[in-house]
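Input record (one chain):
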Amino acid sequence: MKFKRNGVGEAPTRPLPIRQRNPANQESFSKRARRVVLGGVFERRERWSLTPTGWIALLLAVALMFGLVVWRVHPFLAVTDRVDSQLLVVEGWIPNYALEESLSEFKAKPYGLIFTVGCDILTGVNVEAGDNQATYAAKRLVWLGMNPKLVQPVPSPTQYRNRSYASAVALREWVEQHRLSVTSFNLVTVGVHARRSRLLFQKAFGNNVHIGVIAVQDREYDPGRWWRSSEGVKEVISESAGYLYARLFFHPQASATETATIKRGGG
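The corresponding structure, as predicted from the sequence alone:
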């Protein structure tokens, strides 16, 4: 077949061959792209970067994850998970409305004994040396109508460090000294303290004791909108950090050594 240009026939032109990339030139380009300056302190390289669409997708993913955390963190920390038991353990620092709910819990279930646990009281009105949260909580329960024969305070002399864990250890030691067979109990506390408190009691008692937990709703803020209250934000952030520390870094043997040092008046 022939083609005509300006009326003159000529043979069809052959397609130009595809130029192959010279490996030497490619290597030279890579070296130029990775140019080193200032004696090797800085090096320029090719890199991937996000496009505007990529940045939008990343921001949406981060916002989605943040919203999921805000939505689920409070129910995760303020957990209620009962076990079948005849023993109820109450943290002594909880307010009166939580003690009232502890009393209602005791009457509604087949419990036979309430333990109140806690450490020395450090602040408050007319606080004297030796005043303890466990003893004070037991007195308040009796004042609310609890049979004093069914309330056993177990105070811990710890003042400053690892107070929840020290309370759990004091209860374990009391149980061992009185040769009481304990295979399970339910722990009453308030709000977002629940998951960390159960974890610390579990570390003190070991895996052979089944520990349930009851989180009384904190009345100082709305749990469904905790981020709209300074008290809610403070509680959730502090307890989230405390739970992560207790889960990942808290070692009971080291804690026992520190507690013994404090009892002796050192540290």
